[in-house]
Amino acid sequence: MNLPQIPYFLSHSASVTGERVDFVFGLLIVFATTIIVIVLAMVLFCVTKYHRHRHANREGAIDHSTKLEMFFATVLTVIALTLFAWAADVYADISRPPADTMNIYVVGKQWMWKLHQPNGREEINALHVPVGQAVKLIMTSQDVIHDFYVPAFRVKQDVLPDRYTTMWFTATKTGTYRIHCAQYCGTDHAAMIGWVYVMTQPDYQKWLDAAPANQPAIAGTPGTVGAPMATQLRSTFNAMGCIACHVPTSSVRAPRLDGIYGQAVKLQNGQTVAADEEYIRESILFPNAKISAGYPQPSLMPSYNGQLSEQQLRDLVDFVKSIRNGWPADATTQPASAEPAKDEPKP
Amino acid sequence: MSELQKTIEPSPPRRLNYINHDWSVASWLWPKDHKRIGVMYLVTITFLFFLGSMPAILIRLELLTPKAHLVTHDIYNRLFTMHGVTMVFFFLIPSIPTTFGNILLPMMIGARDLAFPKLNLASYYVFLIGAILAMVSLVYGGVDTGWTFYTPYSTTFSNSAMTPMIFGIFIAGFSSIFTGINFIVTIHTMRCPGMYWSRLPLFVWSLYATSLIFILGTPVLAITLLLLAAEHAFGVGIFNPALGGDPLLYQHLFWFYSHPAVYIMILPGMGVVSELIATFSRKRIFGYHFVAYSSVAIAILGFLVWGHHMFVSGQSMYAGMVFSVLSFLVAVPSAIKVFNWTLTLYKGSLVLKTPLLYALGFIGLFTIGGLTGLFLAAMGVDVHVHDTYFVIAHFHYIMVGGAMMAYLGAMHYWWPKITGRMYPEGWGVFSAVLVFFGFNLTFFPQFVLGYMGMVRRVAEYDAHFQVLNVLSTAGASILGVGYLLPLGYFFWSLRWEPKAGPNPWNATGLEWQSPSPPPELNFEVMPTVNGPPYDYDTVALHEEGIKHV
Description:
A: alpha+beta, elongated, B: 18 helices, 68% helix
């Protein structure tokens, strides 16, 4: 029989945010225990002292006191608002990833996780990350709602179909930690589990380099796109016909894609939106949803809704991100062998 | 209160009451008497409670071991769905209002019946049809979506008997609406002379607040279920993004009803506990107005906090913050109630009978349940414990530790009034203690499991969770005995326990001024109210007088 792991409850958490969560949890434990002890003591005291057959001084019992009630309510409200603010601050931290994250794509489907390292290496139900590095997961689902949950990091986030949600963490300790699907997703929900492997930076690099033969084996430093990966993104971009309009040499007037990622985009209706993953995704699927200022309405671009697999969609978004610093030198020419994008390998 | 001091003449041997005045089948099939309808509800939901417990037994047995040995994953999913749906929609929501509310509300305000007796009868049959439809779904293999029916799993991916289940709940919802309308109209229009709003028993106040939720919230559930059925049966794209819908829309609509529904379950329980504490402390309830108005405050604020079920769903951070702060604030009126109950005990003259034990148990368990609710309202912590056993433990402390303890307390307290017989006090105390310890042993370990990261709705778990799961299953066995004992001794008491007399607890409420069981029209002489509620000081003087003469 395996020795039981030390329960997370008794150990420290393994992420930066986790330490803050544990602290607020501890604060709540202290508060709750105090109240429970007071209520329990009060009840036991009354039950023993004021039992019907006990002689006790029952003179001067009052049956109402607005002052006392208001005092009690005020104290409680103040404590409640303090706890709220403290926990909301931690939540804001959890909701807003820092700028310099290493991004990993996650696709959930019944009943497995598929993860894509920045250099294109794929993992099933496993996630290798370097310790001390802020990691952002950009997640979507192919079918129902899932939830990516790493208890040791104290974070979880629902993974929705047809939409990106993100979560982030910075692991503080090397080790192996459970991944669970926390949102009930059907028959084998209980088996939709995996492991996060937190490694030292050199170990992580070694792991990336030792990719199996069927994987793109060129190392990229985290956060950048390795060369073979870039080829795959490009071929999807070409195969889906994006190249017809969205290159500088095209005769069709379409918004420039190079450098757009992360910028503010002005829309027809005067609003401004940030060109993040969600915006790019939406613009591919529903070109008419948010039209850039100065372009015709309705958009000339056809809708790709229902035409792309999640992987192809991810490739396109990634491609747009990869040209944030401009087109590669050969980008404006149609490559000779624009192979069609591979469909996702089946598990 | 002069009415109270009047000694009641010994009853003739065959006094007619609501039970024995007519034994014809038709009079039991189509009664318009609120007490008979209440008894029919009592029998029906007791059956449904034990039906809903059976999957819970299997769930706890399955979770004895880390691997799925007893049932397959698919069966397990159907078991927890059946447990949740039966307990929430067919036991907890109707539990106290339709039984004790039905039987006692008119008596407590000095009325001969509810305002709309036929509507009351309709509410029972509508409920019965809903429950039967839900059971039809079980015959067809049950449902594997969880009681929350999250989309798009429920509408598109689940391959189980959704349609009868959805319609069963949809139809049962009308029963809630009928009951809510009936209670509100009755409380407004049928109070006896002298029964001002400021003299209403606190149980009636809590039923009023509950009825507000019934009529404001249940229609939203009905709409949601119809939309669910439209997508499930006809492929109309409402919630499934593949059809152009929005899955979060479903969660908003569902929780807009289902969070207030939690207050449907707990508010009547709070009302019961207020009655029990006053009666068995022999003392006026502390801060009557605060206890009464806090029920209404909870009912209103309860409609504004649904989004706290969705902190990790992808809802906007700022929306989440509004829901979080309101969730913290809704804890204040609940805390005020606990504060007032404990101050009522202070300098009281406590009679430690079974009903008071259940009330004290309620205070303890509800306090833990309420405080752990703050952990879940605290957004940063909720991200970690959401969808884990921490949530399971929390809501069982509220629904079982709270609502179920109050239900059993009410059962023991009003059993003499409903049936005319006492219950065996020794067995009552014994099973109350069993329920309290069994409950804590079952659910406290689940808080720890949740923080350790054990997710809900799984038939398998990692080996290091086993010890706590075994403890939990052991507790559930004790809890089960604690629930079965009353079933036995209440039946037994119908024949072998002594007659109760009109007022075995020397309580002040109007219901105790009528014989037990009450006559068909509730009162032999219609009551009037001349004094404040819970006037136990006067009762005490009277008791003293008897002792000294």
